[in-house]
Predict the 3D structure of the following.
Amino acid sequence: MGELYLFNRIQKPGYRGTLAEYAAEGGYAALRKALAMTPEEVVAIVKDSGLRGRGGAGFPTGFKWTFMPKPNDPRARYLAVNADESEPGTCKDRILMERDPHFVLEGILISAYAIRAKAAYIYIRGEYRASKIAMDSAIAEARAAGIINEKIMAPGLGAEVPLLAYTHVGAGAYICGEETALMESLEGKRGQPRPKPPFPANFGLWGMPTTVNNIETLANVPPIITKGVAWYQTMGTKPSPGNFLCGVSGDVNKPGVYELPLGIPIKSIINDVAGGVWKGRALKGIIPGGSSSGFLPKSIVDGGIAMDHDSLKNQGSFIGTASVVVFDETRCIVRAVKILCQFYHHETCGQCTQCREGCAWLDQIICRIENGDGREDDITTLLALCDGMRGKTICALSDAAAIPVQLALQHFRAEFEEHIRSKRCPLGNPKMEFHTDGRHSHDHLHNTQTVHTDVLTLHGIENPEAGRYRETMRHPS
Ligand SMILES: Cc1cc2nc3c(=O)[nH]c(=O)nc-3n(C[C@H](O)[C@H](O)[C@H](O)COP(=O)(O)O)c2cc1C
Ligand code: SF4
């Protein structure tokens, strides 16, 4: 599948990602090269590369960095590194952190230098204990080796700069992945999004200029610095250059996290990379980029839709975290939507009425449809609710909750209607216990939260755990 630059070391047998191993592979050469430039030159290279954020919104990274104040602004500035990775279906950042922590750290340090940050704070999802241990140990090794410190000589500036990184563990709330909630949480407060403006580049951590970037985004930086813009643009498409880490989970023969070029057809991801739909079953649909990106039907996949920002946007979806969840023909989309609605209901922070009440209503209505108690006008109510939840709130969680419902109703409406008409699941799913108070029903979290633990296979490197988790995900029939 073309050149690898994110997983190239991880794939080598025996590679454990220690400083010695990383350095033997040319590690930290990019940092030395970057320190020989001015921060603005580093920003210009990343901007020219066209790198887009891998945390969900796909915002151009170098361009975001230019929002930071001019060098003569005396305020301290920070880099907040988003390793919260809570989007259902997504488990890519953890692999980078656990298997190649110095690579991640090098990207963080170069980026911190580029925005003239006083320090970088890595906000790690609470459940990711192994990631925290790996990153802490990489930071300690880098400190002992003099790679990071309060004062590091930057020949490009002819001065010493601080190069510092610290980890911080989240408490397991999805909302803390949202950049302003992440900063609140880092500051020790309740993790709730802040209204914008002011934007983080002006008023971020402790009120100081801050850039927030995702782990995978920053892992792209060292190769870009080492190999250059022209090399980077040989991969992917013009508007979406480079490779991306693609989690594939659900009903495929080889679930895993794969490094692939942006623009690859999703059909090829399912069939060629992930070994096709399991048990010889037909494809029903997919979630293309983590739960918030909603549901797309087989016809769109068969039509050749590509995994890139523009192609998915044209379908009313988005690339998100580029984590594909595959549903075979036996899966009930109403149940899948219900599971997501329960998730968002549980995770809304409750500040905005549209989101707080909207998530609760979606959960309640979808649950009753799935339970065989749907009402004739429920679909109309759902669509009106979703409309009221989009683009009106402090953060995008409200949209993230509405999009899966809207897309499911757009592409699988007949299935919802059939549930309401026949007062049962047409696919024969038995009635399940349901909660309207936002509690998860862990027994049937098919394809969503479970994916954090069931997808660990890397490029054909079999994970003995995977089979075990597949068993728990089996269709009840
Ligand atoms: C509800 C919500 C949850 C989010 N969770 C994450 C997350 O877990 N990890 C992440 O990198 N970005 C997450 N984001 C996106 C961040 O707000 C932000 O856009 C991203 O970290 C920027 O990094 P990037 O430009 O490198 O993509 C989330 C956004 C929302 C609205
Ligand atoms: S949209 Fe939802 S999660 Fe985001 S701030 Fe408003 S209530 Fe909280």
